[in-house]
Amino acid sequence: MHNILNKFNKLGYSIIPTPIHKLENLSKFFGANIYCKRDDMTGFAFGGNKTRKLDYLVAEAVNQKADTLVCVGANQSNFCRIASAFGAACNLDVHLVLGGKKPAVSTGNLMLDYLFGAKITHIDSEDWDVWENEAIRVSEELRKKGKKVYWMPIGGSTPTGALGYVECMSEIMDYSRRNKIHFESIFHPTGSAGTQAGLIVGKKLFGYEGEITGIAVTKNEEQLKSEVLTLSRETAHMLEIDFQEDKIIVDDNFIGKCYGAHTRKAEDAIKLFARKEGILLDYVYSGKAASGMLDHIRKKHFPKNSNVLFLHTGGNIQLFN
Ligand SMILES: Cc1ncc(COP(=O)(O)O)c(C=O)c1O
Questions:
Q1: How many helices (H) and strands (E) does the chain have?
Q2: Domain 3-49+158-320's class?
């Protein structure tokens, strides 16, 4: 881990550094050098990108002597599943505010939230602001009852959460240096801006010279670029580093109708990764990001013999819904 991150508390539940390996069959199929960073293998509570963020976030909660975590997300939120597991492991109560109708049967992440012992408020709305306002209201109610609440916005995308992806960037640079491989571009799904902001600040800190391409899965390019920029600036400020980043790349051509909607391209990418590499993606995040990356490769957006890195952020529990 880079020294600059040492001054921040971290719990260490994520199994990192995660491996990077070449996707040999997909590389042959597409005539490109495609690598994968396996953040689906961060381990804790089935892993994914959120364990990295929560290692820093829940450490901050413990440091502030909180006894309760309040989190917000969709019914099938990966973040809320992993936050519930952190709460269980750290003896903290967990209250989740989950958006969308309460389903008759709890499956996937929601089933696991209950298994980890989280208390859940369902809110029948698709509006993220409505969810967050409800989470703020729940937090206030708990505080009035004497609870010490640590509340986290959607996806844990605060400067503290983004540190997890500053650290991920340092792992990518270590790999590049050790193996003398430069990645022309890193592709990943971007939803609440935390992963991309962390990578971008890491890029600046560790001197990565390629592109970081966020494939949008929630909002349009303009909205996400602005959120990523704001969070990058806040994260850099917290790290006390100078930050000027004008090139933030978000491609919003792969969302489909809306967040969570299945797309034909994601389905194709999911099948290709499964059948050529034995790797499981999902329809909401990693499948859409992979479909975006493969589209860029097909359209030959990179010089010949370039290396491209797919950051697999997990989420494949969704396949069981
Ligand atoms: C599996 C998975 N991948 C990617 C993302 C997007 O990460 P971020 O919200 O940091 O942009 C999420 C967010 O919920 C996720 O669950």
A1: 10, 10
A2: alpha beta
